[in-house]
C-alpha cells in the first residue's frame, strides 16, 4: 500500500469515527493508526525522532485505546459483532476495508467486470469484455467537513465474483508458515499455477485454503483475483457436535462447471454438450484472474476428468486443491498435526469462545489424545460444550466407530483393506513408538517396502528419521481395525515378539554386571518393553525368559526399576505354578537387588523376607545360585549398617566360594564384591582408612579381571574417602577420571552417585555455586530412579 493510500484509509477511519460515535482521534492515535495500516511495528513507528514515546507506550496504552474507538465505530456499521470487546491489531485494515464497501455499496455496477491488466488474449488490453459486461463504475471521492478530500484516488476495488464459504473460525491459529507460503504461491509473481494442500483428514486443509482466499479478498497486499470460486467434493462436514452431511457438493466435473457458471453469473456457459461447456468455461476463465478451489479432490466421482480439466486451465487461473492423497500438481503444501504450542492455543481459544473452563492438565490430555489434529481438538471442545463429561469426551476420541475416527480415517482405510498396505498399517499399529521399516515389514509379512507408499500418500503414516510413525488417533483407530482380523493379529504379534527377541539377542548382553554399548536398546526401548508386556499378557513364559536373559543388565543400568519389580513379580508367580524353582529364586534375587538399591525401610523389609524365602528354596532344592543370595543378604545388612549380620553372611559367601568351580563366570568377581561391600561398611562407620584399603584392593583385582564397572564404582568411593580425609586434589582427579566413562556407559545410578560426589567435593572446596549445580543434577537423577533417601539428602544439601 503506498503512502497516499495509507493516508486516505486513515482519513476514512476518522470520517467513520466522527459520523458514528462523534469522537475523533488524537494526533498520537492517528500516527499509530497510520503505522499499523502501513504494517510497521511499534518500534518502527517510534523510530521517528519527532515521536517522544516508547514502543511499549504505543503498544500498551495508545493501541488498545485506538482499537476500542474503532471497534465502537465498526459495530455501528455492522462490520464487528456486538459482543466483540476490542478488535485485534491485525484486524484493523480488513475491517476498515469491509466498512468502506458497506458505506458505498451503490457505487458499483451490478454486473461490471473488466479484464486483468496484464493477462488475457493478445491485443485486448483493458477493453471491455465482449460478453455484454460493462466496465465497473468507481465512487467519486468522498468529502469530509469543509470540503476536505477523504479518499482521493483510493477507491474500493471492482466487484469480485466469489462464493467463498463462511469461515468456521474467528481467529486463524496454527499453520501460519504454510499460509504465508500459500499466499506467495498464489501471487501473480509466482509461476506456479496448480497447488495442492495435502494431509490427513482433520489436519486443517480446508481451513487453510479458505483463510488464504479471504486474505486475498480482504487485503490489498495479498494476491488479487477477479473471481474466487470454491467447490467441494467433501460428502460430510465435521462440527463440534458431530458429523453432518453436506447438502451441496460438487463431486463431478459437470457439477464443478455449474458452480463456476453460477458464481460468474454466466449461465450461458452451460449451453451445449460437455465438450462445448468445457470450451466455453476455459474461454471465459482466460479473460479474468481466477482462484479455483477444489476441496477434497480425492473423493471426486470422475477424478481423472477433474484432473484433466485442472491441467488444461488457462494461465489466468490459479488452481488450489485439498486432498488426503498426493495430488502430484505443481507444488504441494503438506499439513501435519499442530505442535504442542499451537494445539494448546487452539484448545484454550475454543474453550474461551464457548465459555468452558479448561485446566492446564486437561488441555495437555486433549493435546496428547488428539495428537494435535485440529478437527479432533475442535470436536472435543464441542463435546464438552454439549455437556459431555471430560473423561467421556476423551473416550469418544478413541472409539473406532466414533465420529472423529470415521471422519479422519474411515474413507482412507476402507479402500486398502486386505491389501499389502493394509497389513503394513495394522502391523505398524502394534508398535507403540516409531518403528524401523524392516521391523514393520517383517511383522506385516510384506517384504516389498514400496507398499508403504500408499500409506504415506494418504498421510496415514510418516517416515521420519528412518522410522515409520502414525498419530495417536490413527493408531487407536487401526488397533481397533486389527481386532477384526484375529488370524492376522495372532501371526503378526508372534512375528513381532520374535523380531524383538532377535534384536535383543543381537544388541543386548548376558553379562549383567558389566557395562556395554546399549545405543540400539535405548533407541528401541519403548517398542521392546511393549513386546515384553505382551509376553506377560499372553502368558508367553519362555519368550519372557529369553527377553530377560538379554535385557536384565540393561534395565538395571538404565534405571527401569519399576518395570523390573513388576516383571519379577509376574515371573516369580508364574514360575511357582510351573514348579520351576530355579526361576523362582532368580526372580526373587533380581527383585530383591532392586529393592535394596531403592533403600527405603519398607523396601529393605520386603527384600529381607524375599531373600529368606529364596534361601530356604536353595537349601531345599540344592540350587547352585545360593552364593548370589548369600551375597545379597550381606549387601542388605550393609545398607542397614548391621555389621555382625553382614560379617556372618560374608563368611557364608566365602564358604560357598570354596566350592565354586574356577570356570564359573562368577569366580573372579566374588572376592572383588566382598572387598567392595566391606569397604562400604567401613565407610558408613566413618572408618575411612580401612575403607580406602578395601577399595584400593578391589580396584587392583578388578583391573586384573577387566571388570570396568567395578573399577569405576570403587573409584567414586575412593573419591568420597579422599574428601573425608581432606585430600581434595586426589578426590577431584578420581572423579574427573570417572565421569566421562560413566556418562558414556549410561549407568544412571552410577552417574547419580558420581554427581553427588562432585557436589560434596565442591562443598569441601567452598565453591558453593558449583556445589549446588552438581547437587541439583544428582537430585534429578535420584528422583528418576525413585531413590528417595538420596533425593532427600540432596534436598537438604540445596
Q: Can you put this structure into words, describing what you see?
A:
By secondary structure, this protein is mostly helical. 59% of the residues lie in helices and 6% in strands. It has 34 helices and 10 strands. The strands form 3 sheets. A 6-stranded parallel sheet has the order 1-3-6-7-2-8, sandwiched between helices. It has a two-stranded antiparallel ribbon with strand order 4-5. The chain has a two-stranded antiparallel sheet with strand order 9-10. It is elongated and about 105 Å long. About 7% of the residues have low confidence.
Concise overview:
By secondary structure, the chain is mainly alpha-helical.
Q: What attributes characterize this protein structure?
A:
798 residues; mainly alpha; six-stranded parallel beta sheet; two-stranded antiparallel ribbon; 34 helices; 10 strands
What is the gyration radius calculated from CA atoms?
37 Å
**How many helical stretches?**
34
State mean pLDDT (0 to 100 scale): 84
Q: Strand order of the main beta sheet, please?
A: 1-3-6-7-2-8
Kindly estimate the percentage of residues that lie in beta strands according to DSSP: 5-15%
Distance between the termini: 59 Å
Could you give a short account of the major beta sheet?
6 strands, parallel
Q: Give the overall shape.
A: elongated
* Structural class by secondary-structure content: mainly alpha
* Low-confidence parts: 106-157
Please count the beta strands (DSSP E, at least 2 residues each): 10
What level of helicity do the residues show?
Answer: 55-70%
